[in-house]
C-alpha cells in the first residue's frame, strides 16, 4: 500500500515537473513514470490506442507485412524488382490521400462519435483484406494488389484517426507534444523490432500467405481501440450541414497551408523524401540471390531488418533525451548529410569491399541497417513535432493527415523513381551488374536537399504553434514566422 502511494506521488511530480526521478533506479522506473504521466494527463485509453496502433498494428504488423510482401511478390507472384517498386507505390496510395480520411473523422461523426467508429470500421476492413490474400492459393496479381491496397486503406484510416487524437492533445497539452511523438515513435520502433525478429521465422514456417493470415490479429486490435477509446459524444450534429462543414474545413486547411511558414517546410519535406530514391527491392533481391549476392536466408533477412528497428528505436531515444530541443535546421543539416554518407555502406557491400577488410556480409549489413534507420528516425522526428503543432483547432486530423500525406507522396515518388532507375539500369531478378551505380546515384541525391534548408525555420519545433485568429488579424501576413507561431524542435521517418 505504501509502495503504491509512493509510485502515485512520483507520478504526480512527474506530471507537474519535467524533471523526473534521476539516478540508477530511473533507468527502470523512468519509463513507468513516463507512461503513467501520459496516462494521467491524456487518459489511459489514448496511450493504449497509440501503443496498439503504432506499436502493434504499424510496428509489429507492418514489419510482418513488409517481409511477407517482399517474399510474396518475389516467390509467389514472381515479379521483377522494378515492378515490385511500382506495385509498392500503388498499394501505398491510401496513405497519400489521408486528408480525405482526416476530413471524415473531423467533420462526419458516426453514431455521435468522431473517432471510435472509424477505428472499428478500419479494423474490420483490415481483417477481411488479410484473410482474402491468405485464403486464396492462386490469387491473380491484380486482385492481390487490390487486397494489399485495402489493407493499407485500413491502416491509413486508423493512422489518421489516432494522429487526430495526438494532434488534438498536442494543442491542449503543448508541453507534451514531443513526449507524444516520442511515444508514437518508440512504440512503432519496439513493435518493428519484435516484428522483424520473428518475420523470417514465420515466413519460413508458414509462408507469406500464412503471415498475411496472422496479420488479421493486429487489424482486429484496431477495432478494440475503437471500443475502449474515451471520447465525448457529439450531440445534435446537423448532418444536413456536412457539405458546408467540408467546405469550411477545406477553406481553413487551405488558408493555413498557403502561409509561407507552413508550405515552405512542407516543400522541403516532399523534395527531401522524393530525391532519396527507394531502391530497396533491388537490394532485397540481391540479398537473397545465390550467385551474385550473399544469399541470406529468410530468418537472416528478418533479423537484418530487426537491427534496423533497433537503430530506429535508439534514434527515438536519442532524440527524446538529448536532441529534442535542438535547432530544426541544424538537425536537418547533419541528419541529411549523415543519411547520404550512411548509404555508402550499401555501395561498399555490393562492391564486396567489406570482405577485403575481413568483415562478413551479415555483420556489415546489420551495422549499415541500424545506422541508416537511426539517422532516418532522427531526420523525421522534429518534422513530426512541427507538423503536430501546425494543426488548426477543429480540423486536427485533416491537417495533420495533409502534412503526412505530403511525406507519403514523396515516398511514392521515391519508390517509382527508384523503380525507374532500376529498370533503366537493367537490374532484374538475376542481373545486378549496375546495382552499385543505382546506389551511388541514390546517395548523391540524398545530400542534394542541403541546398534547400532555407525553407525550414531555425528554431525549436517544440515552441511552434499556429497563431490564434485574433493574433493573425492583428499582424501582417508576411510576419507570421514559424518562430512567431510561438517558441522553438525535433525529428523522424
Automatic annotation (TrEMBL):
Record keyword Transferase present: no
InterPro entries: BT1, MFS_trans_sf
Segments crossing the lipid bilayer: 44-64, 118-135, 141-162, 183-205, 211-229, 267-288, 300-319, 331-350
Membrane topology summary: Multi-pass membrane protein
SUPFAM superfamilies noted in UniProt: MFS general substrate transporter
Broad class of where this protein is predominantly found: membrane
Keywords: Membrane, Transmembrane, Transmembrane helix, Transport
Subcellular location: Membrane
Family as reported in the entry's similarity comment: Belongs to the major facilitator superfamily. Folate-biopterin transporter (TC 2.A.71) family.
Name of the molecule in the record: Major facilitator superfamily (MFS) profile domain-containing protein
Organism: Gossypium raimondii
Amino acid at each position: 500500500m505504501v509502495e503504491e502511494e509512493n509510485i502515485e506521488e512520483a507520478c504526480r511530480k512527474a506530471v507537474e515537473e519535467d524533471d523526473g526521478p534521476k539516478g540508477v533506479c530511473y533507468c527502470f522506473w523512468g519509463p513507468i513514470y513516463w507512461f503513467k504521466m501520459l496516462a494521467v494527463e491524456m487518459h489511459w485509453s489514448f496511450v493504449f490506442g497509440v501503443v496498439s496502433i503504432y506499436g502493434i498494428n504499424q510496428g509489429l504488423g507492418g514489419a510482418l507485412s513488409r517481409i511477407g510482401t517482399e517474399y510474396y511478390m518475389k516467390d509467389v507472384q514472381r515479379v521483377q524488382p522494378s515492378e515490385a517498386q511500382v506495385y509498392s507505390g500503388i498499394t501505398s496510395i491510401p496513405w497519400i490521400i489521408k486528408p480525405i480520411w482526416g476530413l471524415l473523422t473531423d467533420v462526419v461523426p458516426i453514431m455521435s462519435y468522431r473517432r471510435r467508429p472509424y477505428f472499428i470500421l478500419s479494423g474490420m476492413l483490415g481483417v477481411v483484406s488479410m484473410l482474402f490474400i491468405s485464403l486464396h492459393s492462386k490469387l491473380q496479381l491484380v486482385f492481390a494488389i487490390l487486397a494489399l491496397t485495402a489493407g493499407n486503406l485500413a491502416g491509413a484510416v486508423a493512422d489518421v484517426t489516432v494522429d487526430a487524437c495526438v494532434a488534438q492533445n498536442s494543442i491542449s497539452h503543448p508541453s507534451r507534444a514531443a513526449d507524444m511523438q516520442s511515444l508514437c515513435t518508440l512504440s512503432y520502433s519496439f513493435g518493428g523490432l519484435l516484428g522483424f525478429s520473428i518475420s523470417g521465422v514465420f515466413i519460413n514456417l508458414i509462408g507469406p500467405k500464412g503471415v498475411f493470415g496472422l496479420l488479421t490479429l493486429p487489424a482486429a486490435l484496431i477495432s478494440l481501440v475503437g471500443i475502449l477509446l474515451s471520447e465525448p459524444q457529439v450531440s445534435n450534429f446537423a448532418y444536413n450541414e456536412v457539405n458546408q462543414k467540408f467546405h469550411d474545413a477545406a477553406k481553413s486547411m487551405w488558408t493555413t497551408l498557403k502561409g509561407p511558414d507552413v508550405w515552405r517546410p512542407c516543400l522541403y519535406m516532399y523534395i527531401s523524401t522524393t530525391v532519396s530514391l527507394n531502391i530497396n527491392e533491388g537490394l532485397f533481391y540481391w540479398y537473397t540471390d545465390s550467385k551474385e549476392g550473399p544469399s541470406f536466408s529468410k530468418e537472416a533477412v528478418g533479423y537484418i531488418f530487426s537491427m534496423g528497428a533497433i537503430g530506429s528505436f535508439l534514434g527515438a531515444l536519442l532524440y527524446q533525451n538529448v536532441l529534442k530541443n535542438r535547432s530544426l535546421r541544424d538537425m536537418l543539416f547533419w541528419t541529411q548529410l549523415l543519411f547520404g554518407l550512411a548509404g555508402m555502406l550499401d555501395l561498399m557491400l555490393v562492391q564486396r569491399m567489406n570482405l577485403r577488410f575481413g568483415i562478413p556480409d551479415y555483420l556489415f549489413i546489420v551495422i549499415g541497417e541500424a545506422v541508416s534507420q537511426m539517422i532516418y528516425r532522427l531526420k523525421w522526428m522534429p518534422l513530426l513535432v512541427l507538423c503536430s503543432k501546425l494543426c488548426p483547432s477543429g480540423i486536427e486530423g485533416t491537417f495533420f493527415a495533409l502534412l503526412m500525406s505530403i511525406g507519403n507522396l514523396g515516398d511514392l515518388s521515391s519508390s517509382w523513381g527508384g523503380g525507374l532507375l532500376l529498370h533503366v539500369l537493367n537490374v532484374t531478378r538475376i542481373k545486378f551488374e549496375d546495382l552499385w551505380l543505382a546506389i551511388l546515384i541514390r546517395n548523391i541525391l540524398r545530400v542534394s536537399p542541403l541546398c534547400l534548408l532555407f525553407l525550414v525555420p531555425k528554431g525549436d519545433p517544440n515552441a511552434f504553434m499556429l497563431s490564434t485568429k485574433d493574433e493573425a488579424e492583428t499582424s501582417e501576413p508576411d510576419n507570421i514566422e514559424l518562430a512567431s507561431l510561438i517558441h522553438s524542435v525535433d525529428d523522424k521517418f
